[in-house]
Amino acid sequence: MRVNAYAPVQRVVGVLLALISVSFLPPMVVSWVVGDGIGWSFVVSFLLVSGVGGLLYWPVRQADRDLRISDGFLVVVACWAAVCLAGSLPFVLGLEASLADAIFESTSGITTTGATVFSGLDAMPVSILWYRQQLQWMGGLGIIILAVAILPMLRVGGMQVYKAEATGPMKENRLTPKIAETAKALWLIYIALTIICAAAYWAAGMSAFDALMHSFSTIATAGFSTHDASIGHFNSPLIEWLVIVFVFIASLNFALHFLALRRASMQVYLKDPELKLFAALVVLISVLVTVLLWRQDVSGGFWAALRTGAFHTVSYITTTGFATEGVYLWPGTLPLLLLMISALGGCAGATTGGFKMIRVYLLTKQGIRELKRLAHPRSVVPLKLGGRTLDDEVANAVWGYVSLYIVCIVVLTLLVSGLEADLVTAVSVVFSAMNNLGPALGGAGANWGGLSDITKGLMSFAMLLGRLEIFTILVLLTPTYWKH
């Protein structure tokens, strides 16, 4: 194999690190404005990451081979891993966090998981609070998709990367003819929703800082907060309902937002089968959680139970992870129920984790089709999505994803259960990490700081598995991939 076989991949990673280093500048400015004394940590991080990016890029700057489809997977994984490592620097330098804690927090932010090892957020330096929220906002729509917008300038094709990064099984669909235009359109919508969300929070009573910070994590369906009590800190029904609205919007396929704006019609939303299933499940589960809260007198009265139930249902099913109460302290099956629904996730093409509703929809249709075949063996029952017949390859891909998902959950749970004394903690952190949820049960209910360093490392890997939808990472572990 030639030494420069992966030169285009190295070049993309180098350029991305150079670009990501710029993200240290906003919190640096914030630190200097508020005078929290750790602005130097962002300066050092900027110099180190930009320097490493330059060292990676310069030797291969003239590599002219385009990315192959297989290279797209390596680019995605290498870039996410590099950014997670780079993102840990301010935590190590500014907070003197351990390397395991810093990498965990950075990975949790970038993958929009929202699990944290830190406590005492209300007394934490303002610049670090900004930086944590910014990590999630950048990771929300995908750092790679952002980079795809500039890849044509580097003479590197971007569609291979988009196929490996885009969420959901229908990865070949594009909103516009060119991938760079697709990425730009998605980011414009993303930025617009963030601004509108921040304005709504500010009008509802949040400070300007809190409004902007929570808009970052809301539109990213991420879950970090600037307060230990999360959204419960504000004790505002209006803010809670706004969170429900904006998290729901952010959990829809961004392609729908794009098409609705381009066609100036709401029919795009009304005709989408995935959205219909998502909305129906949100309503049904909200009613169930509300009834359980009301009967067990957890939230005090029916209307309080309704608000609390709807809030946490939307927060968990979209893998956002915001909270107004300590869910892990609730009685009965409620904490387990909310943890389980995080596997459903939001819609494909959104910023959520989990299975994605499109897979739930197709699995349901596939199950019904098999029942019909059992009753009528000679019948031909096509698999359809919104009136369009799908190839069996799509169904096979969905079943393959589910199989690998279950295997990863089982293997990781066995590993973590050997490291942590509490089985509830072990099971819940694996499930939460794989679904990019954030909240967990047992010893990780308040935060994940009490876990062992090895567990934190495994869960950082699990977050990446969930964020990159398993295949993208596991394909690199197969001997076939490395044979040319």
Topology of helices and strands:
Blueprint: H1 7-20, H2 25-34, H3 39-57, H4 69-87, H5 89-95, H6 99-110, H7 126-140, H8 143-148, H9 159-165, H10 179-204, H11 208-219, H12 237-250, H13 254-263, H14 267-270, H15 273-295, H16 302-317, H17 334-341, H18 357-375, E1 384-385, E2 388-389, H19 392-417, H20 423-434, H21 453-467, H22 471-474
Antiparallel strand pairs: 1-2
Structure summarized in a few sentences:
This protein is mainly α and 484 residues long. The chain is 62% helix and 1% strand.
Name a few traits of the molecule:
single chain, 484 residues, mainly alpha, two-stranded antiparallel sheet, 22 helices
Question: Which residues sit in consecutive blocks of at least 5 with pLDDT less than 50?
Answer: 146-163
Structural class determined from secondary elements = mainly alpha
Number of strands: 2
Largest sheet: 2 strands, antiparallel
Shape: globular
Helix content: 55-70%
Radius of gyration: 22 Å
- Topology pattern, helix = H, strand = E: HHHHHHHHHHHHHHHHHHEEHHHH
Distance between the termini: 8 Å
The spatial strand order of the largest sheet comes to 1-2
pLDDT averaged over residues: 87
Strand content: under 5%
Helix count equals: 22
